[in-house]
Amino acid sequence: MGRKSGRTLPEQVGLYLFLGITSLIMVAPFLWVFLTSFKRSTEIVTETPQLLPLVWTLENYLKLPKVAPFVRFFLNSILVSGVSTLFIAFGSAACGYVFAKYRFRGRNFLFFLVISTILIPLQTYIVPLYLLTWKLGWINTYQGLIFPLIIMSSGIFFLRQNIMSIPDELIDAARVDGASEWRVFHSVILPLSLSPIAAISIVNWVYTWSLFIWPLIVANSTEKFTMELGLMYFQREYAVDYGGIMAACVITLLPVLVVFLMFRTRIIEGVAFTGMKH
Amino acid sequence: MARVVLESIGKSFGNVEAVKDFNLTIEDKEFCILVGPSGCGKSTALRMIAGLEEPTKGNIYIGDRAVNDLPPKDRDIAMVFQEYALYPHMTVYKNMAFGLKLRKFPKQEIDQRVRDASEILSIEQLLDRKPKQLSGGQRQRVAVGRAIVRKPAVFLFDEPLSNLDAKLRVQMRAELSKLHDRLQTTIVYVTHDQVEAMTMGSKIVVMKDGLIQQVGNPLDVYNYPVNLFVAGFIGSPMMNFIPCRVLSKDGRLSIDAEAFQLPIPEKKVASYESLAGKEAIFGIRPNDIYDGAHTPERLKVSRIRTVVDVVEPLGSEIHLNVTAGKHNLTAVVDVQAIYRPHQEIELALDLDKMHLFEKDAPSLRIKTEGK
Fold first, then answer.
1. Which of A173, B127, B191, B210 lies in disulfide reach of B93, CB 3.0 to 4.6 Å?
2. ipTM, 2 dp
3. d(CA A236, nearest CA chain B) in Å
């Protein structure tokens, strides 16, 4: 921003045109979902689709609670994503700190073990995970929904890399100042890791919010459904209620959007974070 | 305020012995400087006093307490780090108050101490700023302020001035000396800069390869270096070293450096008798060499002929790099004449200040203090 790019005017115009078009391609589906959620069902399925609704209506939103307990689904999703993200934000920072700054026997092997789990997708271990959950008696419970989501090995890796760039002298200074190990973590490491923590938090929030397969097999009753599962209510065998789906999608997307907008500076900093200058 | 005693301290990192058999007593209120080249173990020794490294062997006492098993926070020390180590997310005030807050001091006392320290260091106007808004010198003051608010028994400084520019370093050097006078607290200060060591310390400890080479007050170490390393490390410009052979004739000693022969003054004969007939290294500081044409009468016995290589006029004095036969020497002379490269001049050596070192002698290991 505000710096000279050294490009000629046609280059500049071409670049902005390219960026504008790609942005539009990215945003178009969301825009379509948003606008469709305000259309009447007769307007949605038509031979000549219109971008803007002819008549703006809230009927798709108003009927949501009648079709299924969407408020409950929404709160369930908030609970699952919220608790998971809290665990991951805190846990990744704590594990990242230990791997970055503590020296102990087997540290590198343990770290290798942790990051190697990044390569294993959920689908490959979903059956043993289900059996474990069943043995723990956690099928159709919140703890069953949440517990596989409280550790993020890529988050530990990301935080470790960031915490490694915090100078050791800062930690030494805190120890000499009288800080306990917990206090060093809480008062020095955590505040200096806010940007990477925000970045992994949003990634995890989006991941857990849109998770479908695990809630589908663990949640057996409507009371434990998340928003993603709730979307199934609009897909029946012979008919699909597109208006309802679009309205539910908008509501599903909102918290992610809000979280992103709230923390966007931190998230961008976190992703661009490569080293700390003191 | 406290005495610090290090008793047969050793520290190894794997197979590398960073500190070996380190014995040192730092008296109460003493300004003790650990000085030596990079990697000599001085910072490791300091970190062991702080409790940031655990000694592999030996005992450390601060005051009357053995502190080997105490964490840094319970050792009643404060430390100033090379990179300042200010918490970047806290204001200057909070940086200084952090240690007191952790020790649960009342708010009013914290405020009083921070304001007193900031007044001593002239940083009152910076209290609301974050470290990144400060210059190097200001950061250094804040780091010192953070240490003095705690009123610890011992201050530890780990190369605190090495990141400052030359002018600021001179200024901070004087300020730290003044601060020591004012606080009257034991200070252990690590530096690789021998000028800092000479100007600030009441005791200096010269280290090399994890071993103490010499301990003493700065002038003693300067005037009576115990080995070649100390002689070369302390003093700027560096002492001249010339390989020679020590000759003995009729109870008199002299040195033969091929290009010149010099008699060893009578009062030094007893010290160097053991070197008679052996290869040795003759040492003389550049400041003890004079222009032969402007020299007091008593020095005339030690004249040598040289050829000027390089002339470095510094305003108040001139550094001359000269050649005598195959030997290179540096002399610091007064501005009394004009010198030119290739000019032949006679230099007079003050042999009362000469040194002789055994050739290829291993580094001397000094276990007790003083000379």
1. B127
2. 0.83
3. 54
